[in-house]
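Predict structure. Chain length: 416.
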Amino acid sequence: MVTFWSHGVGSMAKQTATGIWVRENGTITIDFRYRGVRFREATGLTDTKENLKTAISLRNEIVTTIKRDQLNGTENFKFTDYFPDSKKYQETFGENQTVAVNATFKEYTERYRQRVTARIESGELKYSSLKSYKVALEKLKTAKFFNMKMRDIKKSNIQDYITQLLKTLSPKSVNNLLTPMRQIFEMAFEDEVIDSNPADRVKNPKFPRPEINPFTSMEVEKILMYMSEKHPEHVGYVAFMFYTGCRVGEALAAKWENLTSHGENWTYFFKESRTEGRIGTPKTRESIREVPIMQPLKRYLTQQKKISFMAGDFIFINPRTGEPYYKNAHIINGIWKPALKKLKIAYRDMREFRHTHAVLSLVAGDNIHDIAKRLGHSDTGVTIRTYAKYLKEYTKPSNLEHLLNIEANCKSSNSI
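Prediction complete.
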């Protein structure tokens, strides 16, 4: 067994197993995390072989219960049942884990923050969710009911707050705020502090779906030609998004190891995305997908290989530093905006690459199932609802008669 020494348990201590420490005085301490806080609690057991087994079993029970609570949204683990005299717990969470009936919205907001932090640390929630939760919880401090008792807050208080928010925020931003708010009230309901969740009866403000503005095929050709000439070190990045329909974060996270070639058949396996500078897994199962590499993109990737293959894992890098791009801002401000201005093409965010891929694929007559799979949509209905209306300007005569070849079929049937 490997033994590690530490000064972190109040005095000199040695680690004899995962999360098990023996202090200098010969007593056993358990190390674990609860609600995002690290605890090292004394067991009162002395350092014997049997007591070590007991401590390991106790820690496994505690850690397993905490993880189940995180996954199921329950609170079966009662800290004070195990360590009733813990000073750190008293200082961090108060005297009792049981929430008083007079608990305020502010107190429950803090409990919710701790729960979200723990779920992110355990991997249950994506790190990309952290920023939106932080913004929402900070904004909730402006609510007039923030310091009110949970049991005194009515639907009308929440509705008044929504009306106030809509004066400065978009309906979509308000809806993003309502999600954690409802969950905070739900926690109080589960604790039987309130008899019902007042936020459940509040309707989300309606808002129109954001309009997309895809590039035309002619604009795509102009952009790729200009980038090839003026910015050859970045044209592969732009072409990659145009031809695969991937998200910006997926392009930033693209690695050479996920590109596979079998003769003429090349594919890229999307399984990671970069958000707020961090690499993580996609939010949906469908986003993990294998996408065929179209012939034009092969040329760009072959050229890109000369630029970044020897630099490391990532396909698209900053040629000045040799490091991968952690965010898109440098490319947008330094290259993308000036390029569109030079070409006299109306500015669009780089997210429009994905929409352009979808619309032009539909125009080209690609199979709708293939398009949905390339985009990582859960079903073809999502693809149709999102992009069908943008095909109006691409109307053309039906090819049905050519497909059915009615005249030929008639002659064939007469000869039977």
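Summary: The two ends are 85 Å apart (CA to CA).
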